[in-house]
Amino acid sequence: MFEILTTDQMYEADRRTIDGGIAGDVLMENAGRAVYEEIVRHWSPRSVSVLCGPGNNGGDGFVIARLLREAGWSVRLGLMGDVAAPKGDAADHAARWEGASERLSPALVVGADLVVDCIFGAGLARDITDDIAVLVTTINSSTASVVSVDVPSGVDGNTGMIRGCAIKADLTVTFCRAKPGHYLLPGRLMCGELAIRDIGISDQIISEIRPNCWRNDPVLWRAGIHWPGLDGHKYHRGHLLAFGGAAMTGATRLVARAARRSGVGLLTVVSDPSVLPIYGADSPGVMTAPIGQIETLLNDCRHNAFVIGPGYGVGDDTRSLVLKLLHQCRSTVLDADALTSFADDPSTLCFAVQGPTVLTPHEGEFGRLFPDIEGDKLTRARAAAKRSGATVLIKGADTVIAAPDGRAAISAIEAPWLATAGSGDVLAGIICGLMAQGMEMFDAACMGVWLHGRCGADIGPGLIAEDIPDHLPVILRELWLASRKKA
Ligand SMILES: NC(=O)C1=CN([C@@H]2O[C@H](COP(=O)(O)OP(=O)(O)OC[C@H]3O[C@@H](n4cnc5c(N)ncnc54)[C@H](OP(=O)(O)O)[C@@H]3O)[C@@H](O)[C@H]2O)[C@@H](O)CC1
Ligand SMILES: Nc1ncnc2c1ncn2[C@@H]1O[C@H](COP(=O)(O)OP(=O)(O)O)[C@@H](O)[C@H]1O
Ligand SMILES: [K+]
């Protein structure tokens, strides 16, 4: 259930299911019944208006209206266009509706306690305009509860973008699998609670259409975790070099603590000698080395992972050091200043990426490195990953992680408490720590985002970045115990 399907993949899954012998009108009946079941689970009988658009989303509406009416609810049904308009499966279900139909208008919202939005689903093809926009505004400013079918009308299922305007739902019921627009902003804000309901499309069919986007969940990457073996020693868990800036030392101190809490065997902060005592005094388990020893450090292959950027400073020195590090082809995480230092020359950075590399920009940093890449976050992360050869993670409430081969994951954990200075530094440290332990770059980025999100959600109000590393053992233990149960 963690796959995320584009609307085209969803149409393909429908088509293959229909070819396999389940008729389209049965799928529509199943879809309508799933929404009906969610409605009666959430609300007691009340006056409801079901608003039907001209396509199959409207077809689902006829099923929902019929089932609610049969259950004794007071139902009004509004239809866009004339009564003879529905085609195909929607027409079949329209014919089974024995109640009255009204023309779709704001009058249907007056006196309704519940509005069922079946105006547009996967087939939204252009911006909402004029009379439908007035209806959307009326619904959004009414006190009625709102259930959206498949997607809130006006939200683009593939991108999460709002096409003109969109309905704000309390509950969205989608079918088979979620679509990107359920998790990407701003679509996610319009969905309310999300229910993903089976309508009879088999897992076999979903695997045949080879989805390459998932909701970020341990199912994706838990097999790639390197738990320490009974006979292991610290060098089996990696030796990470964290490059510390001379002015903002707090950033790399956060990086270091997070990396160590993620399980890395050894960690050395490498910095200007003038600030080494600050890094050394921060935590007794941290080792330090002056930047002047860089060649010696790099000659030691046991130093298998590098993280650079947080608090490091923007400029030529940073750029040269990043290129030197990338030349080693070892696991590397580039964040913050390590990215911004290439704002004038991003192609040099992309060209230099050869080994396992994760770029962790927030939207501002992404825009500096890839100003020509446009579109929704999923599309942009994928394009940047393909161009650079790195795993690219665009941070935010809807963090997207994309691999150069097109695989992508979207974070769905709600943890707005993470929006605080230093929290991104912690994320960079976690990801690099996981890579140092041998985890593949895309898996490490996904797992890092998940651990970070779970810490944020658990700690909640009052969170400061310093809290996150020290909460990691709680979440890691959960994963570890689950892995032992499986074995
Ligand atoms: N077997 C299945 O496939 C199943 C499908 N299911 C359901 O079907 C839904 C997809 O159905 P769908 O493809 O008919 O698309 P839908 O969203 O109803 O809209 C299409 C219509 O809207 C129109 N239109 C578009 N944008 C517009 C605008 N801005 N302003 C005005 N008009 C606009 C467009 O017009 P056109 O662009 O063609 O001129 C067309 O007439 C899916 O979300 C799910 O709920 C379930 O029953 C499970 C089984
Ligand atoms: N609304 C939000 N919900 C969840 N996570 C968020 C939200 N806003 C920001 N974050 C997360 O907080 C972190 C902030 O990182 P960043 O912008 O690099 O800050 P800093 O550089 O101060 O560490 C990122 O991991 C980002 O995904
Ligand atoms: K809808």
From TrEMBL:
- According to its UniProt record, the EC number is 4.2.1.136, 5.1.99.6
Q: What does this protein do?
A: Catalyzes the dehydration of the S-form of NAD(P)HX at the expense of ADP, which is converted to AMP. Together with NAD(P)HX epimerase, which catalyzes the epimerization of the S- and R-forms, the enzyme allows the repair of both epimers of NAD(P)HX, a damaged form of NAD(P)H that is a result of enzymatic or heat-dependent hydration. Bifunctional enzyme that catalyzes the epimerization of the S- and R-forms of NAD(P)HX and the dehydration of the S-form of NAD(P)HX at the expense of ADP, which is converted to AMP. This allows the repair of both epimers of NAD(P)HX, a damaged form of NAD(P)H that is a result of enzymatic or heat-dependent hydration.
Q: What is this protein called?
A: Bifunctional NAD(P)H-hydrate repair enzyme
Subunit record text? Homotetramer.
Residues that, per the record, bind K(+): 57, 117, 153
Q: Which CDD domains match?
A: YXKO-related (cd01171)
> What are the residue boundaries of the YjeF C-terminal domain, all occurrences included?
217-479
Which species is the source of this protein? Thalassospira povalilytica
| Domain YjeF N-terminal: start-end pairs | 10-207
* InterPro entries xref list: Carbohydrate_kinase_pred_CS, CARKD, Nnr, Ribokinase-like, YjeF_N_dom, YjeF_N_dom_sf
Superkingdom: Bacteria
Name the keywords, alphabetized. ATP-binding, Isomerase, Lyase, Metal-binding, Multifunctional enzyme, NAD, NADP, Nucleotide-binding, Potassium
Binding note for cofactor: Binds 1 potassium ion per subunit.
Primary gene name = nnrD
Catalytically driven reaction(s):
(6R)-NADPHX = (6S)-NADPHX; (6S)-NADPHX + ADP = AMP + phosphate + NADPH + H(+); (6S)-NADHX + ADP = AMP + phosphate + NADH + H(+); (6R)-NADHX = (6S)-NADHX
Tell me which residues bind (6S)-NADPHX: 56-60, 121-127, 150, 251, 311, 362, 425
